[in-house]
């Protein structure tokens, strides 16, 4: 689990603000973070973009990207993180999108397939986990 005190210390030392874009987690990560005392000094907030329209309309994920790669993909996760960073005016952002189940999986993207992305100054990385 995330060590909030260590994250808070790092963010305060470096004057960093963070934000999230969540899809399959439905806001659970941001809820957990925001329940910790002191996080308002570095946590800007989160966009829960469960719906495609929210990914496109609020996070500015291009519709062509969603159509080409699907909502659960590394390119969309990256675009969600970039969008969250821009909308929330933060330095670093993390996104999570995946197939939560119990249905909806495919052979290529089974239930439990999740894509994560992190973006910050001079850094972008997206990874997937099954």
Count of DSSP E strands? Answer: 5
Order of helices and strands: HEHEHHHEEE
What would you call the structural class?
A: alpha/beta
What number is the mean pLDDT? 94
Radius of gyration: 14 Å
- Beta-strand portion reads 15-25%
Low-confidence stretches: none
Number of helices in the DSSP assignment: 5
Q: How many angstroms separate the termini?
A: 18 Å
Give the CA-based shape: globular
Percent of residues in helices: 25-40%
Précis, in short:
By secondary structure, this protein is an alpha/beta fold. The protein is built from 5 helices and 5 strands.
Give a structural overview:
With 130 residues, this protein is of the alpha/beta class. It is 35% helix and 25% strand. The chain contains five helices and five strands; from the N terminus they run αβαβαααβββ. A five-stranded mixed β-sheet has the order 2-1-3-4-5, with helices on both faces. The longest helix is centred in the middle third of the chain and has 15 residues. The chain starts with a helix and ends with a strand. The model has no long low-confidence stretch (mean pLDDT 94).
């Amino acid at each position: 689990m995330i060590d909030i005190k260590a994250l808070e210390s790092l963010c305060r030392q470096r004057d960093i603000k963070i934000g999230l874009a969540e899809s399959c987690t439905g806001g659970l990560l941001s809820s957990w973070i925001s329940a910790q005392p002191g996080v308002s000094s570095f946590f800007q907030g989160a966009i829960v973009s469960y719906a495609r329209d929210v990914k496109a309309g609020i996070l500015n994920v291009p519709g062509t990207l969603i159509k080409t790669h699907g909502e659960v993909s590394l390119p969309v996760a990256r675009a969600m993180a970039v969008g969250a960073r821009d909308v929330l005016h933060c330095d670093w952002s993390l996104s999570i999108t995946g197939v939560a189940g119990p249905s909806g999986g495919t052979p290529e993207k089974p239930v439990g397939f999740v894509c994560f992305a992190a973006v910050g100054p001079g850094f972008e990385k997206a990874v997937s986990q099954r």
